[in-house]
């Protein structure tokens, strides 16, 4: 009988392949995205020193107050604009996009497109 690997293991494996290819630097930090069943999280990370420079998620009160639901494409797009605005305030305008092993469609693509629209370059 053929047994399939769980989606969680497949995603973790993909994420490690992606992380081996690139990392965030001081000049061009990494925009890491994670989504759970209920929320989305985005961080801009400088991997050379291991610091999170900017973070945003749908768990935060001010973000959650603007959303009807926290786990749909509209919420992802709003989170993309929030993370981009916070990054630009800190002086970060170019990043490397880390989709976290998730397929680039739906919520992940919406977050990336919204961040690009708000001024981040990647």
Overview of this protein structure:
Strands 3-2-1-4 form a 4-stranded mixed β-sheet. The radius of gyration is 15 Å and the shape is globular. The model has no long low-confidence stretch (mean pLDDT 95). Helix content is 39%, strand content 19%. It is of the alpha+beta class and 122 residues long. The longest helix has 17 residues, at 73-89. The protein has 4 helices and 4 strands.
User: Count the strands?
Assistant: 4
Strand content of the residues, in percent?
15-25%
Q: Give the strand line-up of the largest sheet.
A: 3-2-1-4
Q: Are there runs of 5+ residues with pLDDT below 50, and where? A: none
Structural class: alpha+beta
Shape: globular
Largest sheet, if any? 4 strands, mixed
Number of helices: 4
Radius of gyration: 15 Å
Could you name the key traits of this structure?
122 residues; alpha+beta; 4 strands; 39% helix
SSE blueprint and pairings:
Blueprint: H1 7-21, E1 30-35, E2 40-46, E3 51-57, H2 61-64, H3 73-89, E4 96-98, H4 107-117
Parallel strand pairs: 1-4
Antiparallel strand pairs: 1-2, 2-3
Quick recap:
The protein is of the alpha+beta class. Helix content is 39%, strand content 19%.
């Amino acid at each position: 009988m053929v047994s399939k690997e769980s989606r969680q293991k497949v995603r973790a494996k993909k994420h490690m392949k992606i992380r081996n290819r690139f990392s965030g630097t001081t000049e061009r930090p990494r925009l890491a995205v994670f989504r759970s069943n209920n929320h989305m999280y985005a961080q801009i990370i400088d991997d050379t020193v291991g610091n999170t420079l900017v973070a945003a998620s749908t768990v935060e009160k001010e973000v959650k107050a603007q959303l009807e639901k926290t786990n749909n494409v509209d919420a992802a797009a709003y989170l993309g604009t929030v993370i981009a605005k916070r990054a630009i305030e800190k002086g970060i305008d170019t990043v490397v996009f880390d989709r976290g092993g998730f397929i680039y469609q739906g919520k992940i693509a919406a977050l990336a497109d919204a961040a690009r629209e708000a001024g981040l370059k990647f």
